Amino acid sequence: MKSSKKRWNRGEKYQVVLLPEAVKSLKKITDYLRCNESDEVAKYVRKNIIDNIRKLSHMPYSHEVLHEISQGEKTYRRSLQWAYRLIFTVYEDELRVEVVDVDHTAIDPEVLKERFRRK
Q1: DSSP designation for 63
Q2: Residue 2: DSSP 8-state
Q3: For a designed S-S bond to 96, which of 30, 67, 79, 91 qualifies (C-beta 3.0 to 4.6 A apart)?
Q4: In whole angstroms, what is the distance from residue 33 CA to residue 11 CA?
Q5: Burial label, 26 (beta-carbon count in 10 A; 0-12, 13-18, 19+)
Q6: Largest Cα–Cα distance in the chain?
């Protein structure tokens, strides 16, 4: 494993990829807000979540590890945008970040563990 010091000092930009589950989750969040709040709120939240996703291209290791779902070699991290959590993993050798899910922080941690146990 490469040292974390090297990771922090790298100036490279990471490619950020949204996996299909993350795209579906973001759509569900947007649809929910559109139905229960307004189009404006849905667009605003979506835009800010996407902006947060884009920011993962720089220093993705600065985000907290999600110990409750990380297992073995697979480390998941999170980035928060209000009450929404971006769940992602970093592939250092490929300079790639994969956003695997977007969810609400109110989700029961046991439900989150169960979802990721299957991945």
Answers
A1: S
A2: -
A3: 91
A4: 37
A5: buried
A6: 47
- Overall pTM > 0.70: yes
Strands 96-104 and 15-18: parallel
Q: Which CATH class is domain 14-117?
A: alpha beta
Residue with tokens 């969810």: 103
Neighbouring CB atoms inside 10 A of 93's CB total 7
What are the boundaries of each domain within the chain? 14-117
Residue 70 main-chain phi, psi, to 5 deg:
-70, 140
Instruction: List strand residue ranges (DSSP E) for the chain, in order.
Output: 15-18, 77-81, 84-91, 96-104
Angle of CA points 65, 18, 26, to nearest 5°: 90
